[in-house]
């Protein structure tokens, strides 16, 4: 009688090779079977070859976005549990990621323990309530997040984003030079 140990499979997708490999090594040290990808196309090829049980997907990558990847990974296998990881968190993209089927959403920097906790939290009943410590973003922070979302939706084209926002291109460039306001 053989006692085969199950190693959960994980697809780790991030365009930052250093972060991707650091996280992959940490997951492997914990007994996970990890496949890595640097972008949308590479990730879909890997998922079609062998569908992962879990996936960690960076939101912003060159080319197609992490949100598109979430949608398409779940089209390959609806049982894949996806956590979205991003350095550009906003309420709107969180809602989009969850609506598309992600089980959780984490801001960078996140380590393997944060990701494991995100998967564990997601295995319970979904919580729709607002956490007790929730503080709504300031108006300046909400504006900053909206501007960056429109810019991302415009593929980084400042002129197109300015047109969509209804402001002058130079005004948008000035706003983009500012640091994000604190919450």
From TrEMBL:
CDD domains: REC_RegA-like. The modification 4-aspartylphosphate is found at residue 58. GO terms for cellular component: cytosol; protein-DNA complex. Keywords: DNA-binding, Phosphoprotein, Transcription, Transcription regulation, Two-component regulatory system. InterPro entries: CheY-like_superfamily, Homeodomain-like_sf, HTH_Fis, Sig_transdc_resp-reg_receiver, WalR-like. Gene3D superfamilies: 3.40.50.2300, Homeodomain-like (1.10.10.60). SMART domains: REC. One of its GO terms (biological process) is regulation of DNA-templated transcription. SUPFAM superfamilies: CheY-like, Homeodomain-like. Residues 9-123 form the Response regulatory domain. One of its GO terms (molecular function) is transcription cis-regulatory region binding. This is Response regulator transcription factor.
């Amino acid at each position: 009688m053989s006692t085969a140990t199950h190693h959960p499979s994980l697809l780790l997708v991030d365009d930052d090779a250093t972060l991707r490999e650091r996280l992959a090594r940490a997951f492997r040290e914990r007994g996970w079977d990890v496949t890595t990808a640097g972008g949308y196309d590479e990730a879909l090829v890997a998922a079609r070859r062998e569908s992962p049980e879990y996936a960690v997907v960076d939101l912003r990558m060159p080319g197609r976005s992490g949100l598109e990847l979430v949608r398409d990974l779940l089209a390959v296998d609806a049982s894949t549990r996806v956590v979205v990881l991003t350095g550009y968190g906003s309420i709107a993209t969180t809602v989009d990621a969850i609506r598309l089927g992600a089980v959780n959403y984490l801001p960078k920097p996140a380590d393997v323990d944060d990701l494991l906790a995100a998967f564990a939290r997601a295995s319970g009943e979904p919580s729709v309530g607002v956490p007790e410590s929730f503080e709504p973003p300031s108006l300046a922070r909400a504006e900053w997040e909206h501007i960056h979302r429109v810019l991302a939706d415009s593929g980084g084209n400042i002129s197109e984003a300015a047109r969509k926002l209804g402001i002058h291109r130079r005004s948008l460039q000035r706003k983009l030079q500012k640091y994000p306001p604190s919450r």
